[in-house]
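Tutorial sheet, problem 5. The two components below are modelled jointly, 650 residues in total.
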Amino acid sequence: MKVGIVGYGVIGRRAADAVEAQPDMELAGVLKHTRNYGVGLAGERGHRLFSTDGSFGEGSIEDLLAEVDVVVDSTPGGVGMRNKEEYYLPGSVPAVFQGGEAPEVGVSFNALANYEDALNRKYVRVVSCNTTALARLLYILDDGWGVEDAYVVLIRRAADPNEDRKGPVNAILPGNGLSHHARDLQEVLPVPVRTKAYKVPTTLMHMQDISLRLYGQPGREELVDALLREPRILVVPSSEGLNSTARLRDYARELRFRGDIYENVVYDSIDLDGRVYITQAVHQEAIVVPEIIDALRAMQGIRKEESLELTNRTLGVGALRAYTR
Amino acid sequence: MKVGIVGYGVIGRRAADAVEAQPDMELAGVLKHTRNYGVGLAGERGHRLFSTDGSFGEGSIEDLLAEVDVVVDSTPGGVGMRNKEEYYLPGSVPAVFQGGEAPEVGVSFNALANYEDALNRKYVRVVSCNTTALARLLYILDDGWGVEDAYVVLIRRAADPNEDRKGPVNAILPGNGLSHHARDLQEVLPVPVRTKAYKVPTTLMHMQDISLRLYGQPGREELVDALLREPRILVVPSSEGLNSTARLRDYARELRFRGDIYENVVYDSIDLDGRVYITQAVHQEAIVVPEIIDALRAMQGIRKEESLELTNRTLGVGALRAYTR
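Model answer (structure tokens):
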């Protein structure tokens, strides 16, 4: 499978590396729209570089598309939809989009929750980082005990580490009432959920506070065991010094290139009193990367178990273990 | 009523000003433990200054206590309890303590929720800023419709504006499971509530996300009207540019000395779908000040309505109006 990456930013760079790590995929090249330090980065990493209008790199977007079986569009929100209309549809090129696009761009996708919906589809949209993390966690809980209702407070990072013009620097920004994340989640997992979002001055990770009622009544250990069985969930002890997003990323930086955390990071301090109270952290730059790889395989008709096993093994998903019984 | 302020920090300075604004109170003096710029501040503000050991100012803590009818102890958490044992009990001096003290220091107090519990008591503890804001809001909702259960996510400011050694600078710190705020709230208002707390890198205000179920079923307007009737609740429109803690404080700085916000700031974007979803911001430096004044009056046996009306009028509580029907 020859894959082109359109948009070589925070997600595109990671998608390019992840594609190169797959035995059944080949990276055809990466496309940048704007000439900046990403051009040098692509060169240093040995990627073939293309530009939208061909003004730099080996050629234009049409040149790249002519060489590929499928595209990962990792452009800023809204650009993917325009690219689809201008390039992918006319050229009949399948594409994976990001969660910043409107749901109409393709079938919404999470590898755990609804892999089968993307089988043999041409246009697939990997839901956003926050939604991906929620979908994974709630899929496991819904599968095990049935989610009766869930309420999620998203404490969102204000900007990515390379976004030096965004804020806030010193403020908390509440959203205007309930947030769109619930609707987005329901595209991939139809559970009753409400979400509310707050933006805070940090760049490292999102934090999610989940309180929910399950139809079944698992014990705490049973619940933690279900999470420990899923490689895309990393359970961490509250008691061993990982109790901040700074420490989580510090831990990951020692063990993974870029300190990428592909997994949901769930704290083991789960409370139960009829409702269940869970805290998880989300590395917004990395969490969707395994799902992008799985989306590419689903589009080829490859089975879920086969793809997830291969993605997890090649990316090392589930290799970080922080919690021991 | 001659009042002494022990501890002239973030709360002590505000309590001193608030006492001076009361027609039935007189500020005897303020006590500082450590010699720093607060000494100059007290001088500039014209307060008589005392120090613990008498090494600076007009005298020692014993000298101050000999002149007063009652003390507001606004020392750091834990110090108040030691002061009670070392000075207030032996000298038989009544005292108001802050929420940082253990509940055993005195009867826990919120002016709306349990004013009567402090009538003619000698030692009263004004609950913390977050608990004060919760007590006010939940008291009104419980009074109107009965709180069946409530869940609160506290997004806490990391440090006060003058705390230049505290962090985090760039991280989110989750608490270890459910937080103590629920127990603290139940000292003043026995409603079924769970709380969870996260610390984020900002200094301006706390943010609280409250989701709850009421026994009654108010409409949105009915609920907002109940909040608008309470002077210690400021309802702000989500739509008119006040949608961050930075903008709230910017607004208050134009209208109040120090930009102090004594009121809960509740966003009008309240959602209802069986549960009720509310967001409120809390100015941690100022919100307990009206409650400190009311606690002083309750200890003298003065009626609730009389004290609240006088406190609100003298401090201008409820004078900020941001929401118009």
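Marking note: Chain A has a mean pLDDT of 96. Full credit if you identified this.
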